[in-house]
Amino acid sequence: MVHLITRISVIGIAITTAALVILIAAFNGIEGMVERLYSSYDAPLTIRSEKGKTFKENTIDLAKIKKVEGVTEVSRAVEETVILKHQEKWVNAEMVGVDLNFLKTCEIEKHIVDGYPALEENGKPTAIIGASLLDKLDGYISEANGYEQLILYTPLRDASISRRKNPFKTTTLAISSRMNFNREVNAQYILMPLDFAQDQLNYDGEITALYLGIQPKADAFEVKERLQQLMGPNFKVKTAAEKNELIYKTSQSEKRIVIIILVFVFILAAFNLIASLTMLFIEKKDNIQTMQHFGAGKGFIFRIFFFEGLLIAGKGIVIGLALGTAVCLTQQYGKLLEMPNSGGEAFPIEFTVQDGLLIVVLVSALSAVMAFLPVYYLVKRASR
User: Where are the strands (E) in 200-355, listed by range?
Assistant: First the structure.
């Protein structure tokens, strides 16, 4: 009976430890995937005005911004909500007027589905549209001429709505390509030349944001602090993580909740360890009395059973770590599980040495506590 309970205890600890390894690796993979999806499009740093939607280009010194340590690229941008029309289809979209520096920073060529990523052809402006956004309009990039034609409705500044006056500026715009970044960008955004967007909005040297690229090894928050000191209180500098704060915080919160639940499950599984040590203590009661007659003290007996508990838990932890790591490696290289609607892409898994150490420390500490409490109580009671 004691051996059966011991085996159950080892199995319970092993399964819970393996689950911790697999789920933490899965959350790391999801977090990394989300970060890659959003960081590919979103600039590492964005500068906006604190006082209004737009600001004049001549109120900032682009040369000084480029000289800030860690900054590699500076792109000017104009953002506005517009309406797109194709035949009988109408959709709202987020127009972003950008310069060529932005296309380099977001590596647009890696994210093109159809067409060629151009903002100008033959002296005429062209646009790059989100893949899902063009699908909503039932449009496609024609192989014959390489374009799709849309009608762009841009709201005019200070325009009033009346029967005689159209509050929108209407322009035909050629779409050169479709981009695929993440769900939000794919479904809402359309990129076009900065000067064309400014002309559409009647902006005279005005922009709404600056997008900044930084060096690969640079710390975004440190570069942000340098830029904030340079720009002063009239401007707000944000990192990509701060811009998508809800997404990152939700991912972190879910990870913490899952870890807490699994720790609770581990504690429940470790109750088998308490049962195993209790049964073992009862079974060896005669041997304990014999040792006491030979002069064994409480501390000696305590150490025997305490280390026995650690050995049982340690066996389960080692098996669980090995099992969890094996599953993670198999998923990474063998693609056991695929993400739905991903074209065969494997579910992301990322397991780090830091995560392994965290799990070992966590489950070892809990095992030590679960071994200590029953042995301490049983030895104390037996010595009365």
Answer: 206-207, 209-214, 235-239
**59, exposed or middle or buried, with CB in 10 Å at 0-12, 13-18, 19+?**
exposed
269-290 confidence digits (pLDDT tens)? 777 777 777 777 777 777 767 7
Distance CA 184, CA 231 (A): 29
Contact 280, 2 (CB under 8 A): yes
CA-wise closest residue to 90 among 168, 15, 163: 168
pLDDT tens-digit readout, 123-177: 889 999 999 999 999 988 877 677 889 999 998 766 555 555 667 889 999 999 9
Domain with 135, as residue range(s), is 43-240
188 and 289, same structural domain? no
Torsion, Cα of 267, 2, 373, 294 (10° steps): -160
- With tokens 């074209």, the residue in question is 343
Into how many domains does the chain fold? 2
Give this prediction's pTM: 0.66
Mark which of 240, 268, 286 sits at the end of a domain: 240
- 100 and 224 part of one domain: yes
